[in-house]
Amino acid sequence: MPMKDVIRICERLAPPGLATDGDNVGLVIGDPAARCSGVVTALDLTEGVVVAAVAARANLIVVHHPPIYYPLKRIDLSTPQGRLIAAVLRHGIAVYAMHTNLDFAPRGLNDYVARLVGLKNVRPTAGPGKAVYRIGSPGKGVTAAAFARQVKKALRISSARLYGDGGKVINKVAVCTGSGADLLADAQARGADLLLTGEVRHHNAMECAGRGMCMIDGGHLGTERPMAELVAAHIKKMMAKSGKRTRISSLYTEELFRDY
Prior knowledge:
2 domains; single chain; Udp-n-acetylmuramoylalanyl-d-glutamate--2,6- Diaminopimelate Ligase, Chain: A, domain 1; five-stranded mixed sheet
């Protein structure tokens, strides 16, 4: 199957034009004219992901985070980034990135995670710039603490850190995967009383307390990890409709830390 056809399928889910300015989405490494022998989806490009792609005889890796974000002046094989670039080129593997365009897409990552954690009546909400997050209802009588436990189970994360009053009954939840804690004010203005995101910093926690809101930090990795299964399922569905076939697999990224 032509590589460009798989890329076209990815762009149906997350058009590149939805990405924030300067985000390096699309085909980051590789030849769009090549034939695709198989696809591996993963949150990040790592040595383990390259090994898995080689073992699966897949020559396309679709990731969330672009392995090349800032302009490169050199490819130094003594660095982790340099070794990864060399590895995919050595094995003839292309790398395609779906980042903020996937976050904001109508059936993208924010939408997928909002539904995954059990929210109902999920609707898109335009935030600052090009950001589009989600707001939904957790159901009647659900407390912040109960919802945090629900998030932990649904996302399969080791912890869901809750800021605010755990006994507060939550009516509306805003969801912005990855790093979205700066959306607190915007989410509250739109009626949300809890924000689910990752990478909550001290000043975000202080703002949350000052606003009387609740916030759940599921981690950057924890809230974005479902990307691999979302994209793999989309590619499989679109290929089935077109009658085309290729090997597709998604990789589960383990958390990068341990709680002691």
